[in-house]
Amino acid sequence: MTSGDGLGALGSIVTEPGGGSQKTLTDGSRIAVIGAGPAGSFFSYFLLKMADTMALDLTVDVYEPRQFCERGPAGCNHCGGIVSESLVQRLATEGIALPDDVVQRGIESYTLHMDVGDVEIATPVEERRIAAIYRGNGPRNSEPLDTHSFDGYLQQLASQRGANLIRRMVTDVVDEGDRMRVQCVDGSSEVYELVALASGVNSRLEADVEERSRQFKRPERTKTFICEFKLGREVIRETLGPSMHVFLLDIPRLEFAALIPKGDYATLCLLGDDIDEALLDQFFDSPEVKNCFPGGEIPMHVCHCSPRINLSSAKPPFADRMVMIGDCGTTRLFKDGIGAAYRTAKAAARTAIFHGVSAEDFEAHYWPLCRKMDADNRIGKLVFGVGTLVQRSRFARRGVLRMTTLEQQQSTRQRRMSEVLWDLFSGSAPYREVLLRTLHPVYIKDLVWNLVAGNTGRADKPQDAVGSEGEKRHDTP
Amino acid sequence: MTPPDGSNCGGNEQRFWTHAQQLEKLPPCQAECPNSGDVRGWLGIIAQRQKHGLSLAQAYDRAWEELAQRNPFPATIGRICPHPCESRCTRSDKDGAVSINALERFLGDWGIDRELSLPRIEGPRNTESIGVIGSGPAGLSFAYQMARRGYTVTIYERQIQPGGMLRDVIPDYRLPRKVLDAEIERLFELGIAVIRGVELGKDITLAELRERHDILFLGLGAHGARQLGIPGESGPGVMAGINYLRRRKLGMNCGLGDHVVVIGGGNTAIDAARSARREGASVTVLYRRTRAEMPAAAHEVDDAIIEGVDFTFRSVPTSVLRKDAAVTGIEYHCKRAGETGEPMRMAADAIIVAISQEPDWQEPDLSSDGHKWLHTEEDGRLANDLWAGGDDRGPGIASRSVAQGRFAAEAAHAQLRGEPRPQPAPQPVGAGKVKVDYYEEQERGETRRRPRDEWLGQPDLEIDLTISSEQACQEAARCMSCGLCFDCHQCVMYCNAGGYSALEDTAPGRYFDLTLELCEGCGKCIELCPCGYLEAREESPPRMD
Question: Do B524 and A1 touch (CB under 8 A)?
């Protein structure tokens, strides 16, 4: 790997007054996309699609050394693998329909597990479904049956649009003034008019870019824990059903825990403040968790890792002839990373095609989206903070359980708590919307009443909250 | 950390946390090479030259030097070796084995053209006197390994020219003389003395030589031809394969006649048949088993067929037919299905018997125990001062002789210096540990050859040509570096914990450091590592808290 002048020019984002962009894509322009995860593939797809409408002839090279058709960590792109319903719908309007062999299971409800009881929250609007997917081609040792990679599918979409997939590892991006040089591990290099960095926060490339640049800061990250259990399709249908299981447990530093069914497997995702072994021990020891597994015993998982996720955004997520998209640019806090990849990729592509590829162009037309997401993430932190308070307080947990259970039993009633929880877990709505709903007077009134009632054992208590035992589970709602 | 539920893991903690280690393995090419040639090593120098700031010429020079550490005649072996190294090359499963033999030849020729000197091993001069009997591949290899370690070496050769079987028997169309001359001359530049025309047992005794030298190495070869033991075998018109080849190499007219029958299925039989074709005779090879069972290298048999050599399989000669002493044909028994069992006859003007060789030394001290072959310890030791290697220990390919000479020299040197014996090789790369799919497909580069219609027309010209430099680079880049890091960057790029760091000072095989304390035990790097260099540790490492 070469060091030296790398991306020293990254900081030159001083806005020059007046006029259109000095740096635009023209016929024959070459664009490098580094990383073929969702952000890279969406970007390539939209860039080529928009170029078509402008009758612009571009060459797009997508660098991705890994093969998502591989099973286990080699093909994995580490995440929980949830595509929110809003994204599924938006993709459908773009003409991108996720094939059945990519969707491991449509998620139709959330089940909330707390020490004070469990409650199942059905999807708020009938058609809303969430897609559980594998980013790679399934966990370690999985049988090559019907799992297909989500990232592989998007990659294929980009290739069909005309992107060239280059299976080489990029080790450096060097600013050569009027063009960017992309250097590969085999010593080869190519020059481009634009580089879209879509290498996520789990590759070292962005760290190397940051190290060499004085003014670019990559996103801050935190450690998560993800593992896969092989339970078998039948057992999953009986114990977990088409439901995503969320745990609100009073465990220090644990922000969020979810168990997501996918074919023969279930993916466990833990988010929090530096998930470590002590936290894992405590989590696996909780009866609420054990009860989700057959016989109340947690089997050995088939693979696990501790991928990092964003706590903040890249600052700034662009430079001259360079734009950071997906996680390595800006994403939503804890949730809906694929949706954020889609939005940033599309906005970056639009800027590059219709405005230009200078730092000023990205600042004017791409950065606003990123800043909007950042602002919402700040609200998200607050909302998650409140969530944590609920998690920590048995008093509050009782109230939440009571309110949600009653809502779920009475179909006529507006499900204020259910909707808040649903949007919070699924990442379907901006955090701002979630917050606003919790400030609604009726919500507050209901919550206060339920807090009181839930903690004083009133007579109109809900009949039998949904238990965690298999026999209490009803099939597809 | 303990697993989530101790009762479920039955003490099998490995499945939960998989901590990585960097561990070099033995690649299949090296495992199959009789001389344990570090093929991956010298290919890596070429393939990874840019990472080390080497020009192409510098890379070739270094690769040659690396190759010559174990084999002082790469241009020679690169031509004649049946290259078992390629037989289990991991590339075979994908798009054809790496053309290791052609690359060895290319580097060998490069070394000759550049007049590169064989690499010495730095150290003080050693005063012990070393004697070597026989200058075939085993003797020369032993002499080389001792001379480069600073010993005074004297070779005794019964012929005038050194080289043993390499010079006397292997036909020019496979190994041009000037190539062998160049490689032997370069070897003698290390200061090796050669006493020519001296035969053990006739001109000098074993006892005398043991008296004269601290260490004596026997590279006597197996120059005696075995006979069929059938009626009519002795007399004019029947000759042994190696004797025929020897005479032909000396340019003597052998007067074979129009039709020649060659008996045997080894490399000597094929060399003899193809040489006889070059004299204009029609040639039939009679072999007692099937084509698949022939010990000769398959590609040599293919070439013989191209040149018009006929083969009759499953046929056992029973007598040589003669009329007035002159050979008229051969009678043989055919074991093929449907044959009556009646003896069959084939007309022939000459018969070449190339069934096997055996030692022919005249030294009574060596043959007194009735053994035909020398029985040494594995490293070649007969006694503390007496070592042996090559065909005198049993027939084998030239590369095995070079190996036995080297192993004996290394062991003898360790004995003289009181040093520990050479380290055993690392464990082989496990089956399926190299992720073949990771590597880009790239067709095997085939050796260029002269047009077929020229083969017999210019009988002494080499058929195979040396590959181009461009081909050599491409071919070196096809090496998957089984079992040793080649800087693919996957571990350093995708470790969530940042456990790998790039080294400042890199060398082929050494690119990254693993800080074990940072390892989070997900095992991803092991599954990503395409060459099988990373693997799971048995023990969990200490944690950094």
Answer: no
Q: Does domain A8-12+20-77+150-218+313-377 have CATH number 3.50.50.60?
A: yes
Residue of B480, B481, B501, B520 best to disrupt the A interface, most CBs of A under 10 A: B520
Measured between its terminal Cα atoms, the distance across chain B in Å is 12
Q: Which residues contact B202 (CB under 8 A, 6 or more apart)?
A: B362
| Residue A74: closest C-alpha in chain B | B528
| Structural tokens at position B439 | 């590597």
Q: How confident is the model at residue A105 (pLDDT cuts 50, 70, 90)?
A: low
Q: Is A202 on the interface with B (CB under 8 A)?
A: yes
Residue A316, φ and ψ in degrees, nearest 5: -85, 160
Q: Is the CB of A282 inside 8 Å of chain B's CB atoms? A: no
Candidate from A393-402, B29-38, B160-169 with smallest mean pLDDT: A393-402
Q: Where are the beta strands (DSSP E) in B274-420?
A: 282-286, 310-312, 315-323, 326-334, 344-347, 350-353, 357-358, 381-383, 386-388
The b-or-e profile of B313-343 (16+ CB within 10 A means b, else e) is bbbbbbbbbbeeeebebbbbebeeeeeeeee
pLDDT of residue A128: 55
Nearest chain A CA: its distance from B4 CA (Å): 6
CATH classification (class only), B229-358? alpha beta
Which of B9, B489, B524 has the CB atom closest to A185's CB atom? B489
CB-nearest to B492 from A74, A167, A204 is: A204
8 Å CB contact of B496 and A67: no
Higher pLDDT, B52 or A44: A44
- Residue A332 scores a pLDDT above 80: yes
The structure tokens listed for A266 are: 């279930």
Mutation target among B496, B512, B534, B545 for the A interface, most CBs of A within 10 A: B496
Residue B489 forms contact with A (CB below 8 Å): yes
Residue B87: pLDDT over 90 = yes
- Please give the CATH architecture assigned to the domain spanning B129-223+359-417: 3-Layer(bba) Sandwich (3.50)
Q: Which of B51, B487, B493 sits opposite A203 (nearest CB)?
A: B493
Q: Does A67 touch chain B (CB under 8 A)?
A: yes
What the block records as the tokens of B273 is: 């048949």
Q: Residue A474 above 60 pLDDT?
A: no
Q: Where are the domains of chain A?
A: 8-12+20-77+150-218+313-377, 106-140+222-309, 386-472
Q: CB contact, 8 Å: B6 with chain A?
A: no
Would the pTM of this model clear 0.90, i.e. be above it?
Answer: no
Whether B129-223+359-417 and B229-358 share one fold: the answer is yes
DSSP string, A247-273: E----TTEEEEEEEEETTEEEEEEEES
Site from B489, B512, B515, B540 to mutate, A interface, most A CB atoms within 10 angstroms: B489
Are A8-12+20-77+150-218+313-377 and A106-140+222-309 equal in CATH topology? no
| Pair B482, B40: CB distance under 8 Å | yes
Residue A151 has pLDDT above 50, yes or no: yes
Q: Cβ of B1 and A277 within 8 Å?
A: yes
- pLDDT-based confidence at A124, cuts 50/70/90? low
What ipTM does this complex have? Answer: 0.79
Q: How confident is the model at residue A9 (pLDDT cuts 50, 70, 90)?
A: very low
Residue A114: per-residue pLDDT? 87
Q: Could you tell me the residue ranges of all domains in chain B? A: 129-223+359-417, 229-358
For helices A441-456 and A431-438, give the axis angle rounded to 10 degrees: 70
B53 touches chain A (CB under 8 A): no
Q: Compute φ and ψ for A210, nearest 5 degrees.
A: -65, -40
Considering the segment(s) A106-140+222-309 as one domain, its CATH architecture is: 2-Layer Sandwich (3.30)
**Could you tell me which of B484, B539, B497 has the C-alpha nearest to residue B30?**
B484
